[in-house]
Please model this.
Amino acid sequence: MTLNSKNKTFIIAEIGVNHNGSLAIAKKLILAGKKAGADAVKFQNFTAEKLVTINAKKAPYQIKNTKNDNSQFKMLKKLELKKSNYFDLIRFCKSNNIEFLSSVFDSESVDFLQKNLKIKKIKIPSGEITNSILLDKIKLKNYNVILSTGMSNMKEIVNAINIISKKQIYKVIGDKIVIVNNKYLNYIRKKLIVMHCVTDYPVIDQYANLQCINTLQNKLKLNIGYSDHTKGIIAPIIAVSKGAKVIEKHFTLNKKMSGPDHAASLDPKEFEEMVKNIRKFEMMNGDGKKTLFKCEKINKKIARKSLVANKYIKKGDKFTKENLTTKRPGSGICSSHYFNYLNKKSKRNYKPDDLI
Model:
């Protein structure tokens, strides 16, 4: 999937439902995300009627953060955006040079994003990874897909990718994931990002399981990202150091706002600090090539050693271990030539500490 550049992490500010159903708040979040350095902002396209049953209970964290135990339906109904709002938000994102993304939860939302909003990149949230109806609706020829994997095991992840791909890319044999279609794997590598994720709000440190990023890379041979629900900014930076190509983090104007996800989100200052640290890591990580940098050249002459006369050497004398040594500075013949000079005749006179 083409994101930013080859070595630049794609950073998503997950607005989700932190707009609280308000278009004005959503626009403020877009501006704040852009200012904080996000590459994209992500919303959630759903209607409560299609997402949950009338009496579906809230998760414990939702009860805690909303301070009531009303049904999920009542909570989500208040957090919906109107369909017309999405057209406004896309225009607003374009005018502020930040990418608009959205999660999908059902076939209708897929159609709306593709046919009405003309979106080419969509997010499948963790809760939908076993939703075969939704997965079958996705066509990689039409989209780039970001697949989140919270609450899932490897078998479920592989099954989801196979359904999205409309081909069997992987086969599960015991504890092993076997790639059975390498040719098509190369195609979906350009179209699909798999996100390591742990679904809790917030995730305590012992469950972050960042080593799973490497597990997914090794088993799936795909680009891997990280959707983070831990507190703070350390986990995303570690994830990037492990090769995560995409970072997604919940984003709010104020963590004390009413709603299920604000408390587990970053505020604008925290998000900006996360972005700065990720970009700093990318810069410090470099390209991996071992070479002489410009900043080292002046120090090379000072810190390295040259061949130096250890005592008086007359013209015609042979260089020996007794009369030849190495000392700073490194502006003469490099000390690496020491053995090449042994037993060669000197072409001039040298006194102690003369550079050869």
